[in-house]
Amino acid sequence: MAQLLNLLPWRRRRLERELDRELRFHMERRVDDLRQAGATDTEARRQAALEFGGLARVREDVRETWAWRWLDHVGRDVRYALRTLRRSPGFAIAALLSLALGTGVNAAIFSLVDQVVLRPLPVSDPDRLVHLVWRGTTLTTGWGYGYLMSYPLCRDLQEQREFFDGIFCRHVTTVNFSTGQQREPVRAEIVSGSYFPALGVRPALGRLLDVSDDLQRGAHPVIVVSYDYWMNRLGGSREVVGRKVLVNNYPMTVIGVAPAGFPGVDPLAPPMLWVPAAMTEQAANIDAYWDRLLDRRAAWLNVLGRLKPGVSADQAKAGLQPWFKSMLEADARREGFPRVTAEQQRAFLTSTIDIVPAPRGLSGRRGTLERPVWVLTGGTLLLLLLATLNVAGLMLARGAARSRELTTRLAIGATRARMTGQVLVESLLVTLGGGALGLLAAPGVARVLLAYLSQDSDMSVHIDGRVFAFAFLTSVATGALCAIAPALQTGRIPLIASLKERSTQPAGGGLRLRKALMIGQLAFTLILLVGAGLFVQTLAHLYDEAAFPSSRLLMLSVNPPTSGYSPSDAEHVMREVYRRLREVPDIERVAAANTRIFEGGAASTTLTIQSDKRFVTDGAVARMRVGPGFFATLGTRVIGGREFDEADVRPPGAAPTAYRTAIVNESFARRYFKDRSPVGYWLGLGNRPDAVTNIEIVGVVKDIGFRDLRDTEREKVYFHFWDRDSDGGTFYVKVRGSGDSGFAAIRAAVARVDPALPVTLTTFDEQIERSLRTERMLAALSTGFAVMALLLSAIGLYGVMSFVVTQRTQEIGVRLALGATRSGAMWLVIREGLIMVGAGTAIALPAAWALKRLVDAELFGVRAFDGPTVALAMTVLAIVTLGGVMVPAWRAASLSPTDALRLE
Amino acid sequence: MASARFPIPQGTLDMLILQTLSLGPAHGYAIAQRIQQVSREAVQVNQGSLYPALHRLEQKRWLKAAWRPSETGREAKFYAITRAGQKQLAAEKETWDRLAAAVQLIFNEGS
To answer: Which residues does chain A have within 8 Å of residue B48's beta carbon, measured at their own beta carbons?
Structure first.
């Protein structure tokens, strides 16, 4: 403790004063003694000084006992570094800014990576959570994302207590929620009764769902609300427990509130309420065609479990297989099992069950965000490394300029270790400063990234302790990295030689290091350039894919139930809106559909196909309901048969029957009908043996995407929109003239049906832009990174080559005097620049090859190691770096031989 | 440069200082003089290491220091041994004795 106190400046001053007095006393006593022994005054003084040795050295050694040595050094080094940095503000600003850029972007990306990828679920012991996955053929119809299972299978699994402390299942849906006055659509998680007990969550209020709430179909009208929803929308009152509410118009009772911060199993999409699976029919937006709850071929649940302590995922997996196999065999014998080919039967029976660790829960959005986020991480790390090299280069250049100072300090007794420490402290000071600046910028950067990345904003900008720690560690690491090169250089200064040297030019050792750093920068720049090229091309290809008459296309979504219409009245409203829209003269075409395309979602179904034989599809086929004229409105070509027409429309008031007609896409036709036309054959919904194949295929259309623009080549089936009751949907409207003029006309038409009906009206352009947000961000950011890298490299190269020319002034002068041409002199410099570019390329190309796998999934229409892109990137790099080399080269060429030689 | 004087082994100086001060407080110069006199000039105290050692022992609280007028009338920094210093001295003496005895045993065996 005393040692820490000794760092205080006033204490320090007193110690110094006293040491001075003490040593002076010693010297004087010695001189006195020597004089008494007969020496003259001068002799005595000389003798005493000789005996004592270096006074400065003794002082230094004593000082070291006052404070912990390193602490003391650090304190003094920091002061010294601050002084020298103040003396060269240009260097300080350049270094701080490039590091602030590097760290800021990295911290922002890290806050996203942390949320999307790293952070475990906030439940007790998340490491024991696992996801149960069916590997192989399921022969099921699915709703939702990820690996899905049926409710009966989930119940079976709950009996497997040997390996698990609990198994639970969940399904995410949107329900209309009402507490009396307002109704609003909210995200809900339908869960088995084992959900909360297995996750080990305690209520904030009331009680949570348990197994007794999930026993009998329709018999448990109870829900749990999330903490956030309770606080923000239900007033945070304790009276909420026992409150009667409406879930999809069905009366239910709130029994409790989940704890604060509990996001369900999907941290990126937390639900507002939880409903027992037994209430699925009442709570979920049921596709009425199936009875999902007890159907073993209806897959709609993610099944998760908590392993018993000490049981590994592999043990559970191995232990579960015998039971799973017998389950499969029992399933295949069960009545209602689809009639399948021998091959499909074999694939089904050889399925296995996999146990995948899921400490971070499950997230559909994670799948789409994880890769872009990693790609960004890669890019930003490269940028940070580049900034680090840049700062290291700057520090080397400074070290070269200060080499006289350094050698002088070495000569008067500073150790090399101390000098290295000094370099490290200075470097850390710069990087920590840059890191702090970067942290200030990080929230802004993160907000911009989020706006691009996430469709709706369940993710938030969190600059928390973890991000702070990340930025701090990054700064320390970059600081250490920056210091390596200058420290090496300091360690190598040949003391005597450089002191003798009269010129202020430093020794050449630093130059080789600077060149090596430069080559590294050029390599990183090339990688970033290649990345930028790939992402820009991907974006361009996707825009090509969006060949819709989009400037004249509008999307109008209406959802009558939210303003209180009953389902049958809602159907009437939909038909009325459709009728009114068709009467608007400004509208060229209008077609209805059940979903908004390019929003990431798609329903799917298995199908039974009746051609000359009867067979079922291998898996679920994406499906959508569209009205007459849908493809004409979107400009999608019908390549066989016809599209739906008004004659297919079920007359209003007639009972909703099953679908009567279907259209398939090109990929579907190719897969299931090879080179024949599917038109005139029949489809049935589902794959059960009793599926009725009474839906006629009337047409085949070109492939277009559902979920997003990349989604074109999946098999798809379209049913007739008006075949079924529809309580909401989206009208695709093609207007004459520009989109803007259509807005007012469309609103007016809707208002004539019900002025209070809320509508969502967007242009198709907006829709495409929104669906390409991630791609646009990758293209924009990678281009930005590449440009910054190019700039840094060009400036760096300029610095290094200028230095080279200065160093070789005499040599060049001699060459010119001996008859070398000016272009020869220029070439001398340019060649050195080109060699560095070449070396950088030689490093970058294998690295780019290795990074291929990271970016491949994000690309579209271009391969990850695309020849032309690489060639283009190399050309750009060569041109820009030549620009950096040109000025020094020109200086070399315009040297006057006599001036150059007169220098010495 | 052959000398009859011993250079002081590392760490031994601390023990000699403590021993000297166990007889009474003294300033740095006196300590150096006393060690040389008592050892009949055989042990030469390097002043370059004396003061760092004194300050180190002071920081460890084995010595305490105070400014007092010296025998010549000038103010000098007088060091005195503390209770902790005495304990340390006893421990070091014992270690030294054991080591010396052990070394002596080994020498005796060889002769």
So the answer is: 52-54, 57-58, 61
